[in-house]
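Hi R.,

Quick one: here's the HTH deoR-type domain-containing protein sequence you asked about.
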Amino acid sequence: MTMVLKDRLDHLRGIVKTEKKVKVTELSQRFDVTEETIRRDLERLELEGLITRTHGGAVLKVENMFDRLGYTHRSRTNVEEKKKIAQIVASIIPMQATLFADASSTVMEALTLMADRDDITVLTNSIPVLSSLNQSGLNIMSTGGANNRVSCSLQGIIARTTIMNYHVDFVLTSCKGLKLDEGAYDSREGETEIKQLMISRGQKTIMMADHTKFDRTSFVKYCSFQQIDILVTDRRPADEWMELLEEYQIRILYPEAEDAYIKETGNS
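And here's the predicted structure, written out as tokens:
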């Protein structure tokens, strides 16, 4: 029995990310579809930016191999971009705010800049935040849960249950990719479940994404544009993105736009 297109593409994405290199003939047998069908599927994945097609198959693009690397590697990539984003986020969080913070390295950077603020309460599943900022001024609470050693995050039913018991002012989250007319993507299902719950229990969602995340997808979509209130990035996005953000009434912040936002809201 063959899979429907969506399920087959989801499964195919997982195979490519795991095996890094695939052949049309083998995929045709595995999915019980024609080789022409597999070629069309691979064309779709190439348009997504996930793979590069080769003679008789495809290979995972080099930049997408990093999706499965751990927190330490992620924390060392695009460092300057993350710092710019973190500075903006730290400047717009109001007094007495309550936050959900996911386990991304960009969110960690922002919280580090707020470390001397004793008026902010943070509930997080990030092990680096819990270990590095436990002596800071921030009032930090843990979701609890099972330790994912690769992502350095707490996941599972305990973490999800804890999150469901709270409602916060802001959700700080980052992603692996943003796709026009679709939303935000990440690479691990366990982590996206946590992100989705946080967003559902927050008053406003602040998406933190540097310019390399635009026009990219990853394994799992976890957030639509309707759920994003503020998007913080390191440079002005392309015009088509500015139009989309205006359409969804998402406030866009980047270094040149930050001052106007602070003057308008009165934050400092």
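The domain at 71-265 is CATH 3.40.50.1360 (Rossmann fold).

Cheers,
M.
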